[in-house]
Automatic annotation (TrEMBL):
Residues 84-111 are annotated as: Disordered. This is HTH gntR-type domain-containing protein. GO terms for molecular function: DNA binding; DNA-binding transcription factor activity. Residues 90-103 have a biased composition (Acidic residues). GO terms for biological process: negative regulation of DNA-templated transcription. Keywords: DNA-binding, Transcription, Transcription regulation. InterPro entries: Bact_HTH_transcr_reg, Tscrpt_reg_HTH_GntR, WH-like_DNA-bd_sf, WH_DNA-bd_sf. Residues 20-87 form the HTH gntR-type domain. The keyword Transcription regulation applies.
Amino acid sequence: MGAWHRFATVLGVMEFEPDRPRWQQIADILRTRIKDGTYPTKYLVSEIRLVQEFGVARDTVRKSIRQLREEGLLYTVPALGSFVSPQGDGGEEDGVESNDPEAADSATDSA
């Protein structure tokens, strides 16, 4: 996280570095939150909450989430949302793959 972001965060205002895409900066922030335990394993990452927090369009947040999913830090269950993966899991949680609609049903039933 760069000095620019730390300064803006201290002020309580989300300011973005002008020379980098916002989705990359948000992905960096979320990556840090995942790795430092702010977002624990199985934590639901709410798109709407992130849109409100960062003051960006939902598509911007989705690009950030997509990047973290490709890195294996998040996995997505259809109709439920994106969750923090156990470290090193490669995007699967308890045998539930992100593109398995039946798994989403069973996850909903057990919740």
